[in-house]
Amino acid sequence: MPEIEKNEAQEHSAEAPKVDINEEELQALCKAHVCTKCAVMAEAEDIKLRALADNENFKRRIQRETEEVRRYATESVLSDLLPVLDNLALAIEHAGDDPACKNLIMGVDMTRKIFLDTLKRHGLECVGACGEAFDPAKHEAIGTVCEPGKDEDCVAKVSLSGYVLKGRVIRPAKVLVNKKTEA
Hints:
CATH architecture of the largest domain: Roll
Strand order of the largest sheet: 1-4-5
Oligomer: single chain
Low-confidence stretches: none
Mean pLDDT: 83
CATH superfamily of the largest domain: Head domain of nucleotide exchange factor GrpE
Largest sheet: 3 strands, antiparallel
């Protein structure tokens, strides 16, 4: 009996051509013919695509956050320097027109301007000038005044200057807003 089985095996092998393929070709054929209809393969592909998309979103978010941290890294130091600017401005404002203090005030004013220029190179800008339109994003209204000759809802007086760092408000300007009285 074993000889009969042997002969049948030889006949079958003689009928079928011998195919010699490597492992990569076998996997490619399997994917092309079997796995396209397989629900497990479709689910695995979906999971893979979602993971790749999540990874790209994570990379973009980290890059955006890193750029923001780099851009505003100096914010706390600059915020701590604002009282120095305020005090220099107060010194100039309260000096008046006393001729004895003229040179001292000129020196304080020059120091303040150099200080402002230095901070401007780092992206800090002063906001809140008299006459500009009131903007609640940049100004904090501490009161209203009625000054004829000035536009409605414009800054009439700046009580404390505000500052913006690269588009972000560090401190809003404290201002008095002009309102026309009703007759």
